[in-house]
Every structure is written in structure tokens, then in C-alpha cells.
Amino acid sequence: MTTPSDKVLQVEDLVFERNGCTIFSGVNFHLEEGELLLLQGSNGCGKSTLMRILTTLVRPQQGRVCSYGENIYDDKHKYLSNIIFIGHQLALKLALSPLDNLNWSASSSRDRQYIFKVMDEMGLGAVSGLPCYRLSAGQLKRVALTKLFVSDAKLWLLDEPFVALDLSGISIIEKLINRHLKHNGSVLMTSHQDLSLSNIRKLDMSVWCR
Amino acid sequence: MHSPKTRHDIGFYAHFRRELSLARCAFDATIAPLVFMFMGVAVIPLALSPDTVSYSSIAPGIVWIMVMLASLMSIERIFTFDYDDGSLEQLLISPQLLAQPIFGKLVAHWVLTGLPMALASPMMAFVLSLPAEGYLPMILSIVIGTAYLSLVGSVCASLTVSLGRGGFLLPITVIPLYMPIIIFGSATIDFAVSGMEWSFPLAIMGTLLCLAMAVCPIAVATIFRFTILF
Questions:
Q1: Looking at the domain assignment, is residue B88 inside a domain?
Q2: B130 belongs to a structural domain
Q3: What is the DSSP string of chain A?
Q4: Which domain holds residue B78?
Q5: What is the mean pLDDT of each run of 10 residues along chain A (210 residues)?
Q6: How far is A176 from chain B (nearest CA, A)?
Q7: CB distance from A103 to chain B under 8 Å?
Q8: What pTM did the predictor assign?
Q9: Which residue in the set B7, B25, B228 is minimally distant from A104, CB to CB?
Q10: How many domains does chain B have?
Q11: Per the domain annotation, does B29 fall within a domain?
Q12: How far is CA B87 from CA A77, A105, B92, B100, B196, in A?
């Protein structure tokens, strides 16, 4: 048995309303170390909103989110230094090169050599010096996902990480996720894609939708 | 306290440098306010005939109106790019204080818009035949005044950024706050030209700037914490 203080995320009775209309209510789930949770559900059922709640960008009307037994708002700094969120907005500066962009978001323990290495692994070796506005949508997504490599965060929050990626890109990310799980990291993601990953726990949002 | 985790945790200086390097890449957008200011001054002699008005008497006012408009033009977009590409939300969820990076951005904004305007203003003054004793007070008042305009403008820009097309709300909210600077800025030049002690209005501008420096970065950070819902 695991206790609540072991859970990377413990979500209890979450209710979210927008403009007086309930998006979802009674959301309950948890996420443990080394676990991959896949949020599923139709468009507009609140998957991205739930992600935003878990990043503390959006506050739910009711319910609480705990990480290792502590409410995430009690020690926001501690919680935020443990997560990385990659959403639909990639937070890349198009005028700068992928290398500069990654250098900016990299954790201080990673040097330039390491960033070069992971960019090669992501198939971005040839474009690392080009300005980002010359890159395709899929390449930009790869650059954004490379941030996962260069961060120290244990909890990955990924909103539709496979959109715009080709098959080889998807398999690279799957490999990356597997490696992260083996190192006791946790992943919470939304996707409409069929994944070849084993040990996925699926969660259907539609039961909480109104 | 937690030790810095990512490179941009360093806050003020890192964001300041980043803004400068981004501005180098988007050079045309950076110099647009400056060009706008010059074009505005260049058409004034066409609109006002030299027979009826003496330029030197209206020059202080014209200089400050053009500085204000150019500053307004650039402040509108100070947060929109970061908002649109998701950098702002990443900043909000990074484990650090918000006010420092925002202050870094604002100082960079002033270095890129206000400072060039101050340095280029003698050319403007020359076109408007401002008497020579007005030059130094004009440069000093623009240096101080534009810093105030950047700081106060950013508060209004942070309020309107999440509205998307809040383009017309910004001037309405920001121009009343710009008024003291317009009054004391043109008074500084006026006083100097008419041989009065011009350090008084300049000192008031400095006071306003100090207040703005203390309040504005924290205000912007607080506004972002409470209004950005996406």
C-alpha cells in the first residue's frame, strides 16, 4: 500500500466552472512515481483545463490537488520546481535558434555539450543553429519536447505531445517517456493517439463531464 | 529557500539580456517608435506655417507629445508576444519571483525605446529650432520621462494583454497616467528656454520615476497572477 504522502499527485473532488457553466466536477485520481497516466476524452471536455489546474495557472472552484501529501498552493515554489509543462503554446522564440531556446529553458546543471547531444537524439542536429521561424511545425514541436531532456523535473505534464509529430518523432518521445518512468519519474498526458507504450493507466474524462 | 534551478531563475539580468538579444533579431520593430517620432516631427512644419507660429515656442510641447505617442506605440506590444507564444505562462509557472524578470523586461524596453529617443531628440529639436539652452534639459527630461512611461504603461499593458484585441483600451487607460510626465517634461524644457530654474520640474519627474520603479513591477506581477486565465 502507498500512503497519500507517496503520491506525486492526488486530486480530490475537483470542480471547475467557466462563466457559470460546469466543465467538470468530482474529478478524483492519483498519480504515483514511475507511472504514466493518459487522460482521454472528447474535445472540449476539459482535458487542457485540468492540465492548467495542475500547473497552478488556473484555480479550481472546489477541490484540492496535493503533491506528496501537501496542497500544491501551500508551497507553490517547491511544487513548481518539480514540474515541467508543455502545452499547445510551445513558448519558443521564433527569432532565436533551437539551441538558444533550449539553453534558456535548460536547467543550470546542463552544459551546451549535453544540449547538442540531446538535439542530435531528437533529430534536430542539422537545424540547431537556424532561426526557429525557418522550422516546420513538427520540428518546432520536437524542439519544445527537447525541453523535457534538459530539465530536472520529476513530473511531466504534457498536453497533446504528439500533435504535429511524425512516426519517428512519436517513437523517440515514447522512448524518452519510458526512460523517464524507469527513473521513477511520472507523466500525465493527454493524447488522442494510440500509443505503443506498455504500463499506461488510462483515465476517461467524460465520466466527470457535464 | 530553494536554490536556483534553471538558468532564467537568475531573474533580472537574464531577462534583460534576453530582451536585448530578441530585439537584435527583430530590429525593425525595435526602431519603429524612433522612426515614428521623427516622421511626426518632420510633418509639423508642413502643417503649421512658420509665418503664423514660432516653432521654438511650441517645440517643448511637440517634442513631448511625439515622445509620448512613440512610447505608447511600443508599450502596447511589450507583453503580447510572450502572451501569444506561451512564454508568459511558462514564466508564471517557473519557481521564482515574478517582479524581477518583469523589471528586467521593462528596463530592456526603456533601453531599446526611451534611451534612443533621448539620444536622438537633439535632431528633433534642431528641426523645431529649439534654442540651444533647451537641449540638455530636454535630453534629461526624456531620459527620466520615458522610463516612467515604460513602467506605468506596462501596468496598463498587463491589464489589457489577455483581452486579445484590447488595442483601444490601452490608450484610454494609459494616457491619464502619462499626463504628469507630459506636463513636467515640457515644463522642464520651457523653463530652460525662458531662463528659469528647470531643475524643479525635472526633480518632480525623478520623484515620479522613483515611485513608479517601486510600484510598477510588483503591480504587473500581481496583475498577471490574478488575471491570466488563458
A1: yes
A2: yes
A3: ---GGG-SEEEEEEEEEETTEEEEEEEEEEE-TT-EEEEE--TTSSHHHHHHHHTTSS--SEEEEEETTEETTTTHHHHHTTEEEE-SS----TTS-HHHHHHHHSBTT--HHHHHHHHHHTT-GGGTTS-GGGS-HHHHHHHHHHHHHH---SEEEEESTTTT--HHHHHHHHHHHHHHHHTT-EEEEE-SS----SSEEEEEGGGGB-
A4: 10-227
A5: 76 87 87 90 86 89 89 88 91 88 78 86 87 90 90 91 89 90 91 80 82
A6: 21
A7: yes
A8: 0.88
A9: B7
A10: 1
A11: yes
A12: 18, 10, 9, 16, 49
Contact indicator for A68, A74 with CB cutoff of 8 Å: no
Q: How far apart (Å, rounded) are the C-alpha atoms in residues A192 and B224?
A: 32
* DSSP for residue B48: S
Report CA-CA distances (Å) from A71 to A5, A12, A76, B64: 11, 11, 9, 51
A56: chain B residues, CB-CB within 8 Å: 93
Q: Which of B185, B27, B199, B213 minimizes the C-alpha distance to B121?
A: B185
Chain A closest-CA separation from residue B68 CA (Å): 28
What number of helices (H) and strands (E) belong to chain B?
A: 10, 0
- Counted across chains A and B, CB pairs separated by less than 8 A come out at 74
Residue B3 lies in a domain: no
